[in-house]
């Protein structure tokens, strides 16, 4: 990390940002930036914006902008940094970046700024991963959860548990080093209490991943129903615009239509599908086959039934496909005289919502029910939800090893049996903080970042 890196960190808006990090960061920007006050940027106070002009590698002025010098170690990466805040023109930013390359600065790799922050001890690995979640958040709630994790909502408790286990192991090692002395039973009692508390906490954190994944990625949701049940009308009503074609002709929807809908605190990734029925049309059948496959992979099914008609054989296909899934029965067309008998639906669905997709009557009840059905009702997004599969797996392994150590402590096994499993838990927790993670894993994590972050 001795070289100096640069990248466009933000573009496409009114303001664009070029970020530079490394020993020559301020010097490099000073070579392409002339301050209006005539003073070199190398003499500017840290974290103070300086107004001036930016030149390209040929010395031509290409923008009036601000520069700022950021002195180590109080920077994002922990290294000397400098930034140019330009107008957001891609042409200007690229020319400014080329001018820096001419000064011996190299292009930053994906996620290299955050990787340097991690390697320089400015943040733990879980905090660094949360930066990626914050950048890619698609809802305010996901951003709120990620921001809390950037501030240590995951890393801090994990580090605390790891330190406590390290202290316990050190105590046991001291006992093992003096085998002729009697082992105080209080040692095992204290260890059991710590392991019990830690095991419970780790399992709780690991189990939050399913809800955290939904928060970060959204809920894959499929609208199923027989032809003309009102699936496309429901999609349009959820979106608040005409996205799907709606006609009285069966088989109008033949391919999947996918849209994102914000429902309460979650993102619903809704797919409208072809109506389920027996057909001789190979194109329509292909759409039905895709609908079946999409339903199998979904986290939520909105099973739409036409309330103005009795249950049909085609409706039975919808019932069969919804079995075993999180599903809500939507009895549509309540604005028409009702003929559907809900007794059969009550045997298959925990939730039944009558509504009119055409008028919107009853839609609020469905929107309130969806988050609770997928396990994300009202709640504070304080970083407690694990949104990272790697972290969830490490937490689960740590919990299992703590549980094994707890069994050893309570069963009167030798101290080395307790130590072996506790050390396994310590290693797993270190994978989250970054203390025991391999270089290959670190490289893979940061390769998912954008360049400039």
UniProtKB/TrEMBL annotation:
InterPro entries: G_TrmE, GTP-bd, GTP-bd_TrmE_N, GTPase_MnmE, MnmE_dom2, MnmE_helical, P-loop_NTPase, Small_GTP-bd. Pfam families: MMR_HSR1 (PF01926), MnmE_helical (PF12631), TrmE_N (PF10396). One of its GO terms (cellular component) is cytosol. It comes from the Bacteria. GTP binds at residues 228-233, 247-253, 272-275. Residues 218-375 form the TrmE-type G domain. Its EC number is 3.6.-.-. Signal peptide: none annotated. The keyword Cytoplasm applies. Binds 1 potassium ion per subunit. Belongs to the TRAFAC class TrmE-Era-EngA-EngB-Septin-like GTPase superfamily. TrmE GTPase family. HAMAP family: GTPase_MnmE. This is tRNA modification GTPase MnmE. It comes from Agathobaculum butyriciproducens.
């Amino acid at each position: 990390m001795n070289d100096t890196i640069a990248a466009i960190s933000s573009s496409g808006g009114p303001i664009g940002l070029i970020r530079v990090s490394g020993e020559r960061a301020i010097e490099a920007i000073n070579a392409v930036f002339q301050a209006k006050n005539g003073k070199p940027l190398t003499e500017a106070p840290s974290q103070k914006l300086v107004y001036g002009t930016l030149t390209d590698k040929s010395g031509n002025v290409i923008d009036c902008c601000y520069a700022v010098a950021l002195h180590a170690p109080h920077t994002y990466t922990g290294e000397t940094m400098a930034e140019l805040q330009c107008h957001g023109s891609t042409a200007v930013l690229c020319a400014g970046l080329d001018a820096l390359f001419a000064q011996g600065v190299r292009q930053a790799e994906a996620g290299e700024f955050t990787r340097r922050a991690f390697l320089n001890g400015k943040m733990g690995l879980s905090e660094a991963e949360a930066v990626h979640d914050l950048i890619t958040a698609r809802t305010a709630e996901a951003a709120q959860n990620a921001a809390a994790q950037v501030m240590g909502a995951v890393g801090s408790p994990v580090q605390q548990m790891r330190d406590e286990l390290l202290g316990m192991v050190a105590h046991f090692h001291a006992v093992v080093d003096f085998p002729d002395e009697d082992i105080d039973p209080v040692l095992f009692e204290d260890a059991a209490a710590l392991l019990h508390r830690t095991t419970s906490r780790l399992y709780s954190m690991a189990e939050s991943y399913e809800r955290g994944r939904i928060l970060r990625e959204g809920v894959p949701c499929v609208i199923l129903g027989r032809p003309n049940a009102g699936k496309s009308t429901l999609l349009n009503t959820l979106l608040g615009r005409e996205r799907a074609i709606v006609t009285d002709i069966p088989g109008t929807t033949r391919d999947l239509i996918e849209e994102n809908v914000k429902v309460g605190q979650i993102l619903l990734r809704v797919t409208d599908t072809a109506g389920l029925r027996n057909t001789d049309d190979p194109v329509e059948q292909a759409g039905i086959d895709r609908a079946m496959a999409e339903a199998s992979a979904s986290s939520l099914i909105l099973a739409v039934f036409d309330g103005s008609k009795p249950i049909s054989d085609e409706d039975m296909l919808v019932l069969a496909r919804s079995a075993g899934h999180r599903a809500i029965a939507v009895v549509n067309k309540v604005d028409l005289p009702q003929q559907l008998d809900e007794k059969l639906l009550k045997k298959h669905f925990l939730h039944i919502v009558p509504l009119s997709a055409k008028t919107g009557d009853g839609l609020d009840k469905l929107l309130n029910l969806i988050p609770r059905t997928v396990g994300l009702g009202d709640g504070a997004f304080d970083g407690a939800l694990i949104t990272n599969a790697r972290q969830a797996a490490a937490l689960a392994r740590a919990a299992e090893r703590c549980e094994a150590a707890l069994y050893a402590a309570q069963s009167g096994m030798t101290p080395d049996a307790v130590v072996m499993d506790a050390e396994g838990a310590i290693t797993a927790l270190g994978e989250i903080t970054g203390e025991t993670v391999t270089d290959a894993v670190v490289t893979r994590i940061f390769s998912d970042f954008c360049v400039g972050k």
